[in-house]
């Protein structure tokens, strides 16, 4: 039996754990603290699949009809 990857499904946008430098520039750009970001649970199936841990920030890249691609950020919580 082959394991199905959630990330291979066409309706699941690209999720990736952000590196510290990239995160700092995003937080600076929006003048916010990490804790002000929208949240995603560590138990979320995609969080589990990418190996996210509490405190990580996940960048979600979605296709957008108006912008082509749009980036969203989520703080991983318990």
- What is the number of helical segments per DSSP (H or I, 4+ residues)? 2
Distance between the termini: 31 Å
Roughly what fraction of the amino acids lie in strands?
25-35%
Question: Helical content, roughly?
Answer: 10-25%
Helices and strands, in order, run as EHEHEE
Order of the strands making up the biggest sheet: 1-3-4-2
Give descriptors for this structure.
78 residues, alpha+beta, 4-stranded mixed β-sheet
Description:
The protein is an alpha+beta fold and 78 residues long. The protein is 22% helix and 32% strand. The chain has a 4-stranded mixed beta sheet. Strand 3 and strand 4 (68-77) form a beta hairpin. The longest helix is centred in the first third of the chain and has 11 residues, at 20-30. It starts with 13 loop residues before the first strand and ends with a strand. The mean pLDDT is 92.
Q: TL;DR?
A:
InterPro entries: Arch_Rpo5/euc_Rpb5, RNA_pol_subH/Rpb5_C, RNA_pol_subH/Rpb5_CS, RPB5-like_sf. By secondary structure, this protein is an alpha+beta fold.
SSE layout:
Blueprint: E1 14-17, H1 20-30, E2 39-41, H2 45-50, E3 57-64, E4 68-77
Catalytic activity: RNA(n) + a ribonucleoside 5'-triphosphate = RNA(n+1) + diphosphate
Main location: cytoplasm
GO molecular function: DNA-directed RNA polymerase activity
């Amino acid at each position: 039996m082959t394991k199905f990857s959630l990330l291979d499904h066409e309706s699941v946008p690209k999720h990736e754990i952000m590196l510290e430098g990239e995160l700092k520039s995003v937080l600076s750009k929006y003048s916010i603290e990490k804790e002000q970001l929208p949240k995603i649970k560590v138990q979320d199936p995609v969080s589990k699949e990418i190996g996210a841990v509490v405190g990580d920030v996940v960048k979600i890249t979605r296709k957008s009809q108006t912008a082509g691609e749009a980036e969203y950020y989520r703080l991983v919580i318990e």
